């Protein structure tokens, strides 16, 4: 492909050299440059990619997209733009054949529920007989082929490469999570969305966005960017639900478990095995628990309706779907208590999961919670998470999540600092996560619930840059076998 073909959707300030040069690849990371690639130099949060331009040329890069023109090297073409961050997605999309226009792409954003909703939509549309793609925190899929994910939303190059693979595999639909980081860094730039979904907004990632307002605006930018022929489905029960869609060109639809909305549901009955719901006047049994999952299910239902599926067919498939890996996943112990592995890693998610557990327990058992908080992430949420855990549990064991480059005990101390003397009486702290889970299981009696929160599907614990194998579910199964 020729360089000028991938520049069609951007407005270069200046081009130095041959714009007709053939390019064999596009990359934002100099370390991945191969002969003939276009290197896009981006100013990141850690380093300025411009300092790797020489390295990219040394590795065979034949063209450079940048904001600041360096001293030119013969035989290399330079394209200057105002923002490489803005250009990267638009360029990558054209290089990969504009894949998002060749399938129906639906994005999900919000603080909690993205993985759940995107995965349920993926499972549902496969059950409808379509080939489907999924981009999510847990794993990416090109039809039935899993491709490991290390971000919630991949970088613009990997993202378009994956979408192109989906198109090539014959996928008609793709469902993806759009994290606030990704929207803010324009990783999704240049993509054409058929629809967007909003879940909810509570505090997270303030380490990155600094203020709640910036965080909200990052999410809102996704809806601002949707085209006229897309749909925007928002949660009318969330304070920020209508804010999200106030400037969108897309067709707005709402869902609610409480007020008037386009898509509505209420709980008729609930057990640990699932719930009976009434959705838009029809009854359906689902294999999920928790009020927040009713919202997630409604978002899925609404998206399927907007994608042209019939309500009765949607409900039939919904009743066959089950919980997403590490999201409210129950494991029964031989002693007769229930362990629940969940990915709740924000104060709000913890509160919701504990609520869901109490809805089912209905006062007939104790709740023992094991939780921690991730290192090198939002510190402000730590004391709040401890408070939420204590508020709705009989005992709490505070432990390590992914300490990353922080001291595990220091993170635990930040959590404990949120508690008063009376609250502290319910709490013990054990740095070693395996020991913490084991201790919780020793405390539990028949009918109790042990909630193991924070890591969900993760099969590692990240300590000082190294990912050590660790899997909450595996630890529980080992304890139950012994
Ligand atoms: C804070 C953050 O979001 N950082 C992301 C960002 O990196 P950055 O801008 O900091 O990059 P940088 O390290 O400063 O480098 C600048 C540029 O120089 C390039 N470079 C760098 C070194 C080199 O030798 N050569 C080279 O070319 C880099 O490729 C980059 O283009 O852009 C990169 C490419 O897209 C991401 O991989 C990187 O994710 C980091 C690893 C990360 O941990 N991100 C997390 C916080 C994240 O994105 N999480 C969200 C949401 C999670 C959630 O909602 O739960 C996610 O979508 O996963
Ligand atoms: N609609 C919801 N409202 C509140 N909490 C939710 C909701 N859905 C899921 N949760 C809780 O949040 C946790 C994370 O859910 P999920 O992985 O679906 O969210 P996510 O938005 O993908 O998170 P991440 O930002 O880490 O990718 C779940 O384990 C559950 O505890
Ligand atoms: N994708 C999120 C998930 C965090 C999950 C939790 N286990 C942690 O490590 O904090 C993040 O990177 O902030
Ligand atoms: Mg996710």
UniProtKB/TrEMBL annotation:
UniProt entry keywords in alphabetical sequence: ATP-binding, Cell cycle, Cell division, Cell shape, Cell wall biogenesis/degradation, Cytoplasm, Ligase, Magnesium, Nucleotide-binding, Peptidoglycan synthesis
Query: Could you tell me which SUPFAM superfamilies the record lists for this protein?
Result: MurD-like peptide ligases, catalytic domain, MurD-like peptide ligases, peptide-binding domain, MurE/MurF N-terminal domain
Q: What is its EC number?
A: 6.3.2.13
Q: Where does ATP bind?
A: 110-116
Positions of the Mur ligase central domain: 108-304
Q: Which reaction does it catalyse?
A: UDP-N-acetyl-alpha-D-muramoyl-L-alanyl-D-glutamate + meso-2,6-diaminopimelate + ATP = UDP-N-acetyl-alpha-D-muramoyl-L-alanyl-gamma-D-glutamyl-meso-2,6-diaminopimelate + ADP + phosphate + H(+)
The cellular location(s) given in this protein's UniProt record come to: Cytoplasm
GO BP field: cell division; cell wall organization; peptidoglycan biosynthetic process; regulation of cell shape
Record domain Mur ligase N-terminal catalytic: where: 22-70
Cite the binding residues for UDP-N-acetyl-alpha-D-muramoyl-L-alanyl-D-glutamate: 30, 152-153, 179, 185, 187
Q: Where does meso-2,6-diaminopimelate bind?
A: 377, 401-404, 454, 458
Q: What happens to this protein after translation, modification-wise?
A: Carboxylation is probably crucial for Mg(2+) binding and, consequently, for the gamma-phosphate positioning of ATP.
Sequence motif Meso-diaminopimelate recognition motif, location on chain: 401-404
**Domain Mur ligase C-terminal, residue spans:** 326-456
Q: Name one GO cellular component term.
A: cytoplasm
Instruction: List required co-factors.
Output: Mg(2+)
Tell me which domain of life the UniProt entry assigns to the organism this sequence originates from.
Bacteria
Job of this protein:
Catalyzes the addition of meso-diaminopimelic acid to the nucleotide precursor UDP-N-acetylmuramoyl-L-alanyl-D-glutamate (UMAG) in the biosynthesis of bacterial cell-wall peptidoglycan.
> Known HAMAP family for this protein?
MurE (MF_00208)
Protein family per UniProt = Belongs to the MurCDEF family. MurE subfamily.
Q: What is this protein called?
A: UDP-N-acetylmuramoyl-L-alanyl-D-glutamate--2,6-diaminopimelate ligase
Source organism per entry reads Segatella maculosa OT 289
Phylogenetic classification of the source organism = Bacteria, Pseudomonadati, Bacteroidota, Bacteroidia, Bacteroidales
């Amino acid at each position: 492909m020729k360089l000028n073909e991938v520049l069609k959707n951007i407005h270069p300030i200046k081009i130095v050299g041959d714009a007709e040069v053939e390019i064999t690849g596009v990359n934002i990371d100099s370390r991945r440059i191969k002969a003939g690639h276009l290197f896009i130099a981006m100013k990141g949060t850690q380093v300025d990619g411009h300092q790797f331009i020489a390295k990219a040329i040394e590795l065979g890069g034949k063209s450079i997209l940048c904001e600041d023109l360096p001293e030119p090297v013969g035989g290399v073409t330079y394209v200057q733009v105002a923002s490489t961050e803005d250009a990267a997605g638009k360029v990558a999309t054209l290089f990969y054949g504009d894949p998002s226009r060749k399938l129906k792409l639906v994005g999900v954003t919000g603080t909690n529920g993205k993985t759940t909703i995107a995965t349920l939509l993926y499972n549902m549309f496969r059950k409808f007989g379509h080939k489907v793609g999924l981009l999510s925190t847990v794993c990416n899929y090109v039809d039935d082929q899993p491709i490991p994910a290390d971000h919630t939303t991949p970088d613009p190059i990997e993202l378009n490469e994956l979408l192109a693979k989906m198109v090539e595999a014959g996928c008609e639909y793709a469902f993806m999570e759009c994290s606030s980081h990704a929207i803010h860094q324009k990783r999704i730039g240049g993509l054409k969305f058929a629809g967007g979904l909003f879940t909810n907004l509570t505090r997270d990632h303030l380490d990155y966005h600094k203020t709640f307002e910036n965080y909200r605006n990052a999410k809102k930018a996704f809806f601002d960017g949707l085209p006229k022929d897309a749909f925007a489905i928002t949660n009318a029960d969330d304070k920020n639900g209508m804010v999200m869609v106030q400037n969108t060109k897309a067709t707005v639809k709402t869902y609610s478990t409480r007020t008037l909305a386009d898509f509505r549901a209420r709980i008729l009955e609930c057990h640990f095995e699932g719930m009976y719901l009434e959705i838009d006047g029809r009854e359906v049994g689902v294999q999920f628990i928790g009020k927040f999952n009713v919202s997630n299910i409604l978002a899925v239902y609404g998206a399927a309706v907007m994608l042209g599926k019939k309500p009765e067919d949607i409900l039939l498939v919904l009743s066959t779907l089950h919980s997403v890996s590490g999201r409210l996943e129950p494991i029964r112990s031989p002693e007769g208590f229930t362990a629940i592995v969940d990915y709740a890693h924000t104060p709000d998610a913890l509160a919701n999961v504990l609520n869901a557990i109490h809805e089912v327990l209905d006062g007939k058992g104790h709740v023992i919670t094991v939780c921690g908080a991730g290192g090198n992430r939002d510190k402000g949420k730590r004391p709040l998470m401890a408070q939420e855990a204590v508020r709705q549990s009989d005992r709490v064991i505070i432990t390590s999540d992914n300490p990353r480059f922080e001291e595990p005990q220091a993170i635990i101390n930040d959590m404990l600092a949120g508690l008063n003397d009376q609250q502290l009486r319910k709490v013990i702290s054990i740095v070693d996560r395996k020991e913490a889970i084991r201790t919780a299981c020793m405390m539990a009696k028949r009918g109790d619930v042990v909630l193991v929160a924070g890591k969900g599907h993760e099969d590692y614990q990240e300590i000082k840059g190294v990912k050590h194998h660790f899997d909450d579910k595996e630890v529980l199964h080992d304890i139950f076998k012994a």
